[in-house]
Design a protein that fits this description.
The complex is a heterotrimer of chains A (about 270), B (about 260) and C (about 350).
Chain A (H helix, E strand, L loop, with lengths): L1 H20 L5 H4 L2 H16 L14 H9 L4 H11 L1 H7 L1 H5 L3 E5 L2 E4 H27 L1 H10 L4 H30 L9 H28 L16 H19 L2 H13 L1
Antiparallel strand pairs in A: 1-2
Chain B lengths: L5 E9 L5 E10 L4 E6 L5 H8 L7 E6 L2 E2 L5 H7 E4 L3 H4 L5 H12 L3 H14 L15 H13 L5 E5 L7 H12 L4 E5 L3 H7 L2 E6 L2 E7 H4 L3 H6 L23
Parallel strand pairs in B: 3-8, 3-9, 6-7, 7-8
Antiparallel strand pairs in B: 1-2, 1-4, 4-5, 9-10
Helix pairs in contact in B: 4-5, 4-6, 5-6
Chain C lengths: L9 H25 L4 H15 L4 E2 L6 E2 L4 H8 L1 H19 L7 H25 L5 H30 L6 H33 L1 H6 L12 H24 L3 H10 L5 H18 L11 H10 L6 H32 L2
The chains are: A mainly alpha (about 270), B alpha/beta (about 260), C mainly alpha (about 350).
Chain lengths: ~270, ~260, ~350
Amino acid sequence: MAALMGNIESSLLNIGYLETLSYQQTPLHRLDPRVKLLTTLVFIIAVVSFGKYEITGLIPFIIYPVALIAVGNLPPGYLFKKILLAAPFAFFIGIFNPFLDRALMVQLGPVGISGGWVSFASIMIRFTLTVSAALILIAGTGFNAVCLALDKMGTPRSFVIQLLFLYRYIFVLTDEALRLVRARALRSFQGRGMGFKVFSYMIGQLLLRTLDRAHRIHLAMLSRGFDGKIRLLRPLQIHGRDAAFFLGWSALFVLMRWYNIPHLLGNAVAGLIR
Amino acid sequence: MSHHLVEVKDLRYTYPDGTCVLRGVSFRITHGEAVAIIGANGAGKSTLLLQLNGCLLPQAGAVRIGDFPLNKKTLPYVRRTVGMVFQDPDDQLFMPLVYDDVAFGPLNLGLPLEEVEARVVSALATVGALHLKDRPPYRLSGGEKRAVAIASVLSMSPSILVMDEPTSYLDPKTRRHLIELLQTFKHTLIIATHDLDMVLDLCSRTIILKDGQVIADGPTLEILQNQELLDSGSLEKPFRLQGCPLCGTKSDASE
Amino acid sequence: MHMADALISPAVGGAMWAATAGLTAYSAKKLRIDLDEHKVPLMGVLGAFIFAAQMINFTIPATGSSGHLGGGMILAILLGPYAGFLVMASVLTVQALFFADGGLLALGCNIFNLGFFPCFIAYPLIYKKIAGESPTPGRILLGAMVAAILGLQLGALGVVLETWFSGLSELSFINFLLLMQPIHLAIGIVEGVVTAAVVSFVWKTHPEILARAPSAPGAKAHSHKPLLIGLALFAVVAGGMLSWFASTHPDGLEWAVKGATGKEELEATKEGVHGVMGWMQEKLSFLPDYDFNKPNEEKAGKKEESWPDISAGKSLAGILGAALTLLLAGVIGFALRRYYSHSKG
């Protein structure tokens, strides 16, 4: 039970914390949100385009999250924890690989590693890279700015409005849900009161309150002249540094995708040693 | 002068589920007056307020705002003239940032962008919330939300301000600030509230609603000292008039 | 279950995004036509409601585990297919951004799997047909159950297909399918019951909301043809695919079972599943000649092609280089952090 309330509260706190991080004034935060969104997408596509047994070629991509975390003053420990929490699905599908693909692939001295383990490792590395990129996008930009970027880049206006409203009211509604859950917890003992009937009453209550609130918001909107069209008033400007950010990183991603940096580096160093 | 007039004549309203809430309400409020509407829960205060800016339309009787009778066609005019501040600021602040919420009204009025910007800044400055301009609403305290909600209505430059329970959920200091702020307003103020001490400070006139009808309409000081009248409306005297618990002086009718 | 970026290829991700973007634009356009401005706040708060409701759980009797709400069906029923789809998409977007549920590239897949199937297939073809204009509690329950189950089965099938086409997981199509479908059947039942309960509640207290939801695209009032055609199509596709893939991935199931659990007692299940496969194959009779127990060499032979030839020397250089790269990245990051926190003043 405590775990569940922790679930709601921690979700709220999570969103709130990421939102707080996005208010910082670092060079990362000052970049145009469209540019950050696009760069993140290029990053993800580059990472995801590798073959399934690739490991070393993926490693240099870590520079992107690392650099952004440093410049954006983001907490690495917190982000790492979030990545771990999100890992289960990829993990549980990926873990089949070592069992299904047992053909020997790599020989490290006396130790033989099967292809399955290699592809599994590749999956987990991909996971870490892509998820950190997404989290850094939010922590370094803020949800409202991302929505604005989407709007300016052609996303249907009604969808953007939907995202903004949804975000706005998540806190209000999870608050109400939390109050319901607490009220239930205080009056249930030894698992009684946790059954389906009570649950459906709670959901029903929450829904009714939601509908009432929607009605009141509608009235408030009408009172201020709402005519069905939402007007957003925030100009965005691309500066030199925004373009440089996007072009620079994208070029680097392409480079790292084309050339296996660790191999080159390793060969160079190994050559030096000999 | 007449464009600030609020006139209600024999207003009646029944909700779709059958509850008859207003049974013939009549009054006349002139420019610059500050009027409190008080009464027990269920007396019809909120419903009456919703009639004043057209959120609900009268089923019988008439509402007149300034030069215009209230009907579907005059709604845009009415909504420009009457600014309504709702009880729950969360219902009123629905945009991503405070700035957006305060700009919502002016943008809908079709004003040019510079004018909108000017109005937003002026409205926020009036309520003392200019520093909150770029914050999202869910990060505001109760008092700040209340202030921003008022600003979001002020930016439309209404001549009449209607407010539903403005001091609820506010801590004493914030409440005091709000009352002081409202005292500086030149608008016509119509406030539905349980906070009778605020009424003493702010409103020169008071209307008592009971079961959908007006049972009293007159100077605040007179009405709020009339124990019988208050009793019949299921109300009490303002705390200030109830005698001092420390020095033991008792007011006339309390035991 | 959500697709993850880690399991997806750019081609699949891109294709699904194209499909989702198209659907989003289409839904947005449709909405503008019959939008009554009441919908704007309603959609927003209902999205938040789904979000919040997903955090309330209940114990499922006799299993001790807990269940909770998905939401696609409820949204479709309360808002109609277009608005329902947009709201579901928005909820999934927030989850992807804040909780790393899935990923940004896989978001297209997830919106499709969890939004398209409930709103544009299960709702019009199943729920509307069963529940009709003035539903009774019984019809609501039946409609919600079947629709939820179908929606989730299709969604799960979507995940399997997307994973399979991306080629990053070793799970064969049929293994993954057999893993996902039963789980989602159970989830679907729970979802159906919850949806039915909520919809009945709304029907009793606010029936006008249900009456207002626009009807589904292209669904004729009393024709059962779309439903039958849809189901038949599904059966054809599923049956054909199942049969074909079963024939090219023999013994995969035994491998999965032994490897994943190391237990022998699942031998019995294996028999049962084989039996079911055989029965299904007979019934569908598309590829009547498949044999589930093809010899091992074929699988080994297939594997041969995808083994890149990596020599030991190359591996060592690679590992050395990888270590150096990581070190370099760490140093750069550290330096950047120092530089920027100094210059912040």
